[in-house]
Structure formats: C-alpha cells, structure tokens
Amino acid sequence: MSGLVPFALIAAFFVTALLYAAVGFGGGSTYAALLALSGLDYRLLPVLALACNIVVVAGSTVRFARAKVTPWRGAILLTALAAPAAFLGGLTPIKQETFMLLLGASLLLTGVTMLLPIANEHEGQPHPMARMVPVAAAPLGYLAGLVGIGGGIFLAPLLHLTRWNNARAIAATASLFILVNSLFGLAGQLLKNGTGLLGGAVYGGLALLIAVAVGGQIGSLLAVKFLPQRIIRWLTAALVIWVGGRLLLGA
Known about the structure:
The relative contact order is 0.24. This protein has helices at residues 7-22, 28-38, 44-66, 72-91, 96-115, 133-147, 152-161, 167-193, 196-225, 229-250. It is 77% helix and 0% strand. By secondary structure, the protein is mostly helical.
C-alpha cells in the first residue's frame, strides 16, 4: 500500500470504526479483512489492524470511563489475565489460510451465540457461570493475539450470555480489553516480524488511522448516550456474523 489510500477504503474504515465503537469494539477483524482485499503485505495486516484498534478504543475507553459505566474491578481482572496471553499469541507464527479460517469460524460462532434467546435477562441477575468468566480470559487473549485483533468480539458474547453485567458495562469492558490486548498483541507482532513493519503501516495507513479516530469517537458517543441496551446487543451479533461469514467465504 502506498501513501495514497483509495477513498473507498478510507470510507469503509470510517464506517467500520463508527459501528464497532458503538458496541464497544475496535473493528480489528474487519480492518484485517478490508486490508486483505487491498493486496497489502500479509505481515502488515495485524500490525495496521491493531494500530487502528488502539486509536478507536482509546477514545471509547475514555468516554465510557467519563460516563461512569466501566465496572473497573471486573474489567481490570479480565484484562490483566488476557494481556500476557495476547503477547504470546502475537509471537506465534500463523499461515494466512489458517488466519482467515480461524478468525472467520470464531466470529461466526460467537455471533450466532449472541442471537440465542436468554431467559430472564435482567440487570443485577448474573448467571452462576459468570464467576467462571475469568478462566476464559487468557485463552481469549491468546486467540486475539494470534489473529491480530483485540479480542473484545470474543469476550462480549460470553459476558452477555452469562449476564455478567448490563450491556453498556459490557461494552465498556470490551473496550478496555481490546485496548490493552491490542497493545500487547502489537508488541508481540512487532517482535515476531520486526519493528520496521510499524513504520510501513503508519506511512501507508495514516489516512486510515485518521478515519478510524473520527469514526470511533462518533460511535462511542452513540453507545454512551443514545443506543438502548438491546440494540447494542443485536448490533454486536449482526456485526460478528457479517464479518465471520465474509472471512469464511474468502478463506
């Protein structure tokens, strides 16, 4: 990718950041899919996708914190358990075909799970299995680092299914989870492939980083002040299924 990025790709990144930030995600999976279609060097996909993740969810995390919807104790616990595993995942070599297949299958499964009806879904009534969520944090962090995303798209469905907290608190937790995992995963990717890739990613994708910064701010504002919790949950499912199906069809 040269310094001149097609307008259509910039627009796609803007819309992706807006929609994903509205449900507390960074959009790394979709960024990777869009970049794969652009013909970018495969090694740059996770680097640029993670960089975009960081730009989007940094703003989202701050907005959620200012709105006082972040459940800090639980969010920090999950993130602390996942981050070292995300670093190890970033260090692990993976083939392009395996990357697309693993990511697509995982996203499709979690999206379908989000559509399953949950009886008596009320705030303040967590499922007994909610206590076991921290056990899944490290495996989810490793998977996120392996495929070059933040992992919130894996975590959020689990939190919803166990009624871990209300939808906005889950979105806020996912944002923090993605931010820290993206930083650790990016460190692993750069250590694996060399720090020179970061300069190439920033040079080739500066316009994309600006687009996701603006889109992410708008999306996180929608999530904090306007979108009902049920809509947040269904938007999450729709996004995950669409991205997962797209990746599987191209794998």
